[in-house]
Amino acid sequence: QVQLGESGGGLVQAGGSLRLSCAASGRTFTTNTMAWFREAPGKERELVAAINWSGEDISYATSVKGRFTISRDNAKNAWYLQMNSLKPEDTAIYYCAARSRAYAGVSTWTHDYNYWGQGTQVTVSS
Description:
126 residues; 7-stranded mixed beta sheet; 11 strands; 47% strand; globular
């Protein structure tokens, strides 16, 4: 059974930093695109960042460019989201996700991702 598990969420003041981690079990994702999405109350789930299998193709939401960094560690079957200069509008539940098809590219669409974590809450206070 494939499982993705997020960690690293919490409460932080505006301007602070958090690092989210996603660990996968049940299969390896060394040839798969991995991503972070978020869902704020009353809003649709949106892509925050995605990284392809080689790490050479990365996509960020406009609102987080220059502040967030996605990375992956294939040896650990894990990926990460470093979040700096956090703003209250970054408050949301953050989900890690992965595409099942090998060598598929980054995508902004939730339906292109086949595996999802349970989510971790990030709250940024003003």
